[in-house]
Amino acid sequence: MIYWIIIIMLTFVLDQLTKAKAENIFVEIPVNLLGGILSLTYVQNRGGAFSILEGKRRFFIIVSIILILFLCYMIFKSTKNLYKFSYSLIVGGATGNLFDRIVKGYVVDFIDIKVIPVFNLADFFITCGVLLLIFLILREGGEELFLKKKH
């Protein structure tokens, strides 16, 4: 169990450190990298992913808390480490964005890849965790997700 707590804490801390750096450096002057394909641009996101449901802060706080609690339960109940790893990435990322919503009233985004909306490390960790979870479900038929044992 300690490994999963470390992963959650590590993803949370990395997310918060990079957001703090973004708030201190990229607010005034965005930094262009890779010939302008990638830039570091400070954005205050008051919605969800891709700024959907902007201004629904309370809704996102409640949904995030429920999701985090459920996934912590799944980490405890799961028998397979890759599932636990995917849940831990999602929990760490969701906790980072939840912290922003509660403390600041918005989520700090700063990674700008021109073909997708601006995002942060928490979003990256959530996306990686969800993609891994989808892969595992498709590969194994979802038995672990629903806590069923094969007979």
From TrEMBL:
One of its GO terms (biological process) is proteolysis. The chain crosses the membrane at residues 59-76, 115-138. The keyword Ribonucleoprotein does not apply. It catalyses: Release of signal peptides from bacterial membrane prolipoproteins. Hydrolyzes -Xaa-Yaa-Zaa-|-(S,diacylglyceryl)Cys-, in which Xaa is hydrophobic (preferably Leu), and Yaa (Ala or Ser) and Zaa (Gly or Ala) have small, neutral side chains. Keywords: Aspartyl protease, Cell membrane, Hydrolase, Membrane, Protease, Transmembrane, Transmembrane helix. Signal peptide: none annotated. This is Lipoprotein signal peptidase. Its EC number is 3.4.23.36. It is found in: Cell membrane. It comes from Caldicellulosiruptor owensensis.
